[in-house]
């Protein structure tokens, strides 16, 4: 049985400790700017009411109530929003010189992006809890028991964490916070081009292909399957929708494999 060398163990402990310190810093910043936190927490409940009752009054879905069909899509929408918030906060820190100060301090290189992604994961859990409460109030519920329900939420957490690393990289790559703010609306079309709000069967072939291979669609399909909600995958489907759980895990692994090293390199090189 192999063991980690003492220097590597110390480095990992150093990275973890510094990262937790920066997670606390990000959460403390939200505490001192309660407006940002309140807006982030109200957003999920507003989405449930807006889409659930506005769309729900006009759209019929096979096999059940539209709000039961909708909630997994809204969970996926909130999950996907992770990279946008992290991108904006990272770009703000970078453009205001905060990253340069961190880089000059004796801390682990990975600690800064780890702090950004770790803080987003905690706030994301709170947003998810609020959306669950709002969903229960409008009639949504999981039907297959505790374990499949826990598996669905675990998939959301895993994909959210992977997407937050995309946000770190993009936030470091853009020139300033104004550019990052301008990119935020681009997240909405990506979310809408999926099965989150309507089935993809009625879309033109080329558009349906894009929607079926969208990670938002895979997460939505996996959630519907695990919750037992209407719209669970069936029939002749694209591979991500026929195997949505595997697709979400593969998307998450690919995003982490690509964007963790890219984020670390971008953070190291930005000040040069």
Descriptive report:
The protein is an all-alpha fold. α4 packs antiparallel against α8. The model has no long low-confidence stretch (mean pLDDT 80).
Short summary of the structure?
This protein has 272 residues and is mainly alpha-helical. It has 13 helices and no strands.
Order of helices and strands: HHHHHHHHHHHHH
Averaged pLDDT? 80
The coarse silhouette is: globular
N/C terminus separation: 41 Å
Total strand count, please?
Answer: 0
The share of residues in extended strands comes to: under 5%
**SSE class:** mainly alpha
Largest sheet: none
Low-confidence stretches are: none
Compute the gyration radius: what is it?
20 Å
Q: Report the helical percentage.
A: over 70%
Number of helices: 13
Helices and strands in order:
Layout (H helix, E strand, L loop, with lengths): L5 H27 L1 H22 L10 H15 L1 H14 L2 H7 L6 H27 L8 H28 L3 H7 L3 H6 L12 H8 L2 H13 L11 H4 L1 H26 L3
Helix pairs in contact: 1-6, 2-3, 2-6, 3-6, 3-7, 3-11, 4-6, 4-7, 4-8, 6-7, 7-11, 7-13, 11-13
Question: What are the salient characteristics of this protein?
Answer:
13 helices, mainly alpha, globular, 272 residues, single chain
């Amino acid at each position: 049985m192999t063991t980690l060398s003492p220097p590597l163990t110390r480095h990992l402990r150093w990275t973890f400790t510094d990262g937790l310190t920066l997670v606390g810093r990000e959460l403390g910043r939200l505490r001192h700017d309660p407006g940002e936190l309140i807006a982030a927490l109200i957003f999920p409940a507003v989405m449930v009411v807006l889409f659930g009752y506005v769309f729900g009054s006009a759209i019929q879905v096979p096999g059940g109530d539209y709000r039961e069909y909708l909630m997994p899509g809204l969970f996926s929408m909130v999950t996907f929003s992770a990279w946008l918030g992290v991108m904006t906060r990272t770009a703000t820190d970078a453009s205001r010189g905060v990253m340069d100060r961190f880089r000059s301090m004796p801390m682990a290189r990975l600690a800064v992006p780890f702090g950004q992604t770790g803080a987003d994961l905690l706030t994301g859990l709170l947003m998810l809890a609020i959306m669950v409460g709002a969903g229960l109030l409008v009639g949504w519920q999981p039907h297959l028991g505790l374990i499949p329900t826990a598996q669905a939420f675990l998939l959301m957490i895993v994909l959210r964490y992977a997407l937050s690393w995309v946000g770190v990289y993009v936030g470091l790559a853009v020139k300033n916070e104004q550019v990052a703010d301008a990119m935020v609306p681009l997240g909405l079309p990506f979310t809408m081009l999926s099965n989150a709000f309507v089935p993809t069967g009625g879309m033109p072939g080329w558009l349906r292909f894009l929607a079926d291979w969208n990670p938002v669609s895979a997460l939505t399909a996996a959630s519907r399957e695990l919750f037992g909600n209407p719209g669970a995958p069936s029939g002749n489907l694209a591979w991500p929708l026929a195997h949505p759980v595997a697709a979400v895990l593969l998307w998450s692994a690919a995003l982490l494999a690509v964007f963790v090293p890219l984020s670390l390199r971008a953070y190291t090189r930005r000040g040069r």
